[in-house]
Amino acid sequence: MMAATTATRVRAGTRRAPVLCQMPWLPLMLVAAAAAAAAASEQQVPLVLWSSDRGLWAPAADTHEGHITSDMQLSTYLDPAVELGPRNVLLFLQDKLSIEDFTAYGGVFGNKQDSAFSNLENALDLAPSSLVLPAVDWYAVSTLTTYLQEKLGASPLHVDLATLRELKLNASIPALLLIRLPYTASSGLMAPKEVLTGNDEVIGQVLSTLKSEDIPYTAGLTAVRPSRVARDVAMVTGGLGRQLLQRTVAPPAINAPVSYNDTAPRILFWAQNFSVAYGEHWEDLTSRTFGVQDLNLTGSSWNDSIARLVLTYDSLFGTMVTFKFTLANRFYPVSARHWFTLENLEIHSNGSVAYFNASQVTGPSIYSFHCEHVSSENKDGNLLVPDTQPSLWQMTFRDFQIQAFNVTGEQFSYASDCAGFFSPGIWMGLLTSLFMLFIFTYGLHMILSLKTMDRFDDHKGPTIVLTQIV
């Protein structure tokens, strides 16, 4: 129930059913704080509405976290409250307020003793209808007073607590009351929390006055401008250094995998890095392989049992070099399923062929195969084993993935990873634990095997004679 209440209010505020009236509201501000701040918080302020009437606000299905409420959307939220709700409208207009104020000074997670909004929180808990908009466009808020004046047909009346007690409000006569609340976070005379607490006391006294007179009302809390602005690195002292520190680094582009098609995609192959060496000279083929439209795949073929992917490079090490991946698909009765295996990898150059055994690259045919390192070098696992030792050719794939059977579209299926379940560290831990368990068991067995004497010397009887057994 609590999760449902929070989710309802996060989505830009909705009508709250009577059974949820006792749930706290401030935790929803934490969820919306990051999104509101990231969306240029210097132009948005929060708006909190509540009313003594029920059913004024229907759930807004198209709102989401981080949504900025525009003036047109705000009017759709306010129209039912003004047209169908109480004719007395109170607008608490604070000088400055931001969503971060609720995050920093609100009594979140049920800690209401430290809350600077205890009266506001209590009013929302008891109100039959409430609406919380974490981020409202500044222009929409600036025209809020004019909008309410036109809808109610009443001029705004600026009042304070003393003036409100002298007013005689009528439920049938529209009234628009504006109550200004200060926010002096930059004055240095009072801490922001003390100012917000004082403003909350004013809200509590005003609502108590209306409650004592039994006057229906609709109230709202918002601000003229935000109290906190988004961090602008250009305005920070030493701007150039801050810009360098806060510069956003673009994520590396991920190229599309190599795809062999006949009537449909048949073979997919991808690696984050594809490097090959002849002798001591290494070449990086990543940019020449993945995301390339005119990659030469001549000689590639596919059927249900054998798939061949052929990559040809015209000028590699000064000559034409061809790489052939041969994958076989077989049915194994023991597992009652088909498994594929990368039978071998061939490198053709200048009429010579270098073979690499890659039988460890295997997995169920319905899956793809993935491995962090597929290489002919010992330091990277040596999954590619050359037929002749030593070999002039070396190959290394990083973040290697391939699939040649049951390919659907241009996406890999679930990957069967080469990582073993038991790492060397796990084996060391298991063996050490078993050794310690054996010592403990042996020691416990020796202790349980100890026997005490069952015969004792009696000074009145004959002396016990212990016969020595040789």
UniProtKB/TrEMBL annotation:
- In this chain the V-type proton ATPase subunit S1/VOA1 transmembrane domain maps to 420-458
Annotated transmembrane regions: 426-450
Region forming the signal peptide = 1-40
The UniProt keyword set, sorted, is: Membrane, Signal, Transmembrane, Transmembrane helix
Q: Please report the record's description of how this protein sits within the membrane.
A: Single-pass membrane protein
User: What InterPro entries does the record tag this protein with?
Assistant: Ac45_acc_su, VAS1/VOA1_TM, VAS1_LD
Similarity remark: Belongs to the vacuolar ATPase subunit S1 family.
* Name assigned to this protein: V-type proton ATPase subunit S1
- Residue intervals of the V-type proton ATPase subunit S1 luminal domain: 265-405
Q: One Pfam annotation, family name?
A: VAS1_LD
Primary location recorded for the protein, binned into one broad class: membrane
State the compartments where it is located.
Membrane
